[in-house]
Amino acid sequence: MTSPEPALTLFTHPLASYCWKVTIALYENGTLFESRILNGRPADDAQFRRLWPAAKMPVLRDAARERTIPETSIIIEYLQHHYPGPIALLPADPDAQLEVRLWDRFFDLYVQTPMQKLVSDRMRPADQKDPAGVGEATATLAMAYGVLEDRFAGASGEQPFTLADCAAAPALFYAEAVQPFTATHPALGGYFERLLARPSVRRTIREAQPYLQYFPFREALNPRFTSPDF
What we know:
By secondary structure, the chain is of the alpha+beta class. It has helices at 17-28, 46-51, 72-82, 94-123, 131-153, 163-178, 186-196, 199-208; strands spanning 8-12, 34-37, 59-62, 67-70.
């Protein structure tokens, strides 16, 4: 017997941190899907632009329901509603949901966004650098590390894996190379290690290994992340 064709197609790239957020969620629940890797500029892919004119990865296409779902947090909520698995990445309790959504937004806005600013600035030609923007991004990351250190210093016991953790793993992976935190923020560093221990996160990193050579801060990546034994 042949395996059923996946209803879900994820337009993605293994190096893209926001794409990691969704693949981690898919792997956590063993959700069947097909990857469509977008090489080059997503905006230059005509099919992708027809699906989502903003041309920002990732985008989920659900052929069975004839739906196109952009934006990482919305994709993960959509999966929970229509393709639920054993792990509820959003809890049922409304107050707990708000807490998860808060930290999901925190990682996206205050870790992912400034981290990506520092990465994009390194890729700019020398005469197009943005020192003011880099300074703002550096300060935002420092603030975020402090908030997160306080949050995880007070955490006790094993916590359920949620949407917020899906956002945290890729944000912290790249942020540690761009503006390291593990040596100065032990509670946040401990949380990061717990994320790295999850099979869904490790699988996502292993799939990215052939592409990590193109990451602008590749020299600052921990060597274990490029090891075939990771």
